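User: Here's a chain of 87 residues. Predict its fold as tokens.
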Amino acid sequence: LRREYLKKRRRVLYTNLKTSGKLTEHLAEIEQTARKMVEQTVARMAQAEGVTEELKASDQMKWVGLMNNTRAAAEEVALTELVYADT
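Assistant: Prediction complete.
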């Protein structure tokens, strides 16, 4: 996603990264940071929402729904702050 964003919206940065040989490194760094951000955000949001192992044991469907919503929100944050950022 980051590569496509750079190609379409940040053409000069994309070209500079590519010609300097740093594009792959940049993309890998963004991906690693985004994955870490999603996992940390999911953990914080789940704790704040009261999504616990006890809930998982007692009401699995509710737990799955809450975790899906939490993950989707965390992924949106990572996309906005990292993938589609103008840095």
